[in-house]
Amino acid sequence: MRVADTIQHEATELWGDGKGPLLASIAGGWGVLLGTRMIYPVLLPYLRSSFDLSLTVGGLLVTVLWLGVSLGQLPGGILADRYSERGVMVAGALVVACALVLVVTAPTPLVLFAATGLVGLGQSLYPIARITILSKIYPDRIGSALGVTMATGDLGQTVLPPIGGAIAAAAAWQFGLGFVVPLLLVVAGVLWTVLPARPSTASPVDSLSAESASSVVGKLRRANLGFVAFILFLYILIWQSFTGLYPTYLVERKGLSSSIAGLLFSVFFAFGVLVKPLAGAAYDRIGLRRALVIVLVGPVAGLAILPFVERLWLLVVVTALVSTMLGSGAITQSYLSDAIPEEVRGTGLGVVRTTSATLGALGPVLFGALADRGYFDEGYLLLAGVLVVVIFLTLRLPERSGG
């Protein structure tokens, strides 16, 4: 009964005082954007066939997508500090919609890669603005608010990829990706209507000078974020390597059909819908270190036994085990939001996330190169080993941010 009362209290706090529609619109937009991004791995077998791509080049395509998402987060953070978050997030949704039109009409691999990079850049405008506006709406419940938002992202990743895969199987891959364009236009309209506009303000990085950059770096150094950023990099490397080629692995090594692989891939994110709100609330209650270790133990076991599992029901169990690592995002991003001073929060988050995610984006292409050389199974064992390192590093972290 106590758990039920706690959940009801958290829900009341998140929805009350007119905050509910704001949270719903932000979370809904995040769900559509993340769902769009995760259609790529499901459609990768079709893209490889249509454009004659090897596993390495297919992994590179996913890496290009993630590089776009990563590289744009620093300018996205600067824009979030300087301008209205509403305008930044609306612009992101519109850029992704336009870029997808270019992807589905791409006549050559070069155009496909360029348009995919633009999809990533459009998506990069949303994440930092989402965190900064939520930190203002929920100054005392950022973990819970981010957990709900990220869970909605996983709901989008659960629903949209199998729909895209089914449409691709029934018609063509272009329709399996293009159907989200109208959804993105709706997202842009809802965000513009529901979210409050904020006038442009002065920012510590209004001018891209060495002095302003030094000021931001100094504030981040005082917040002692380098260690957390390194852990975040390792986690992103693991997560992007796993998600980027998991449906392809299920098709090529486990013998599943593309549609079943897409459904199993959605199961991974379906569990995240449950895990992320719990992980965010756990951060608010027990701190970074213990919450992070709890969500990372299961994935070590799951990744280690994945190469030795063949039956479908066992693959479902393994996928569920690995999925608990999705909770780490709600924990680490809440910690970063608390630790970074408010006046440079958007820019600081952009620096940390861009650095970590850019390096982590190399994961899919490196993983694809291993797979091309006959080490697909061994790649998952390597990921399990890296995750063990992440857990040991996590044990050295303080329970709370110093900010």
UniProtKB/TrEMBL annotation:
Give GO MF terms, alphabetically: transmembrane transporter activity
Task: Describe its membrane topology.
Answer: Multi-pass membrane protein
Q: Name one Pfam family in it.
A: MFS_1
Alphabetical UniProt keywords: Cell membrane, Membrane, Transmembrane, Transmembrane helix
What are the Major facilitator superfamily (MFS) profile domain coordinates in residue numbering? 21-402
GO annotation, cellular component aspect: plasma membrane
Protein's name according to its UniProt entry: MFS transporter
Q: Species name for this entry?
A: Halobellus limi
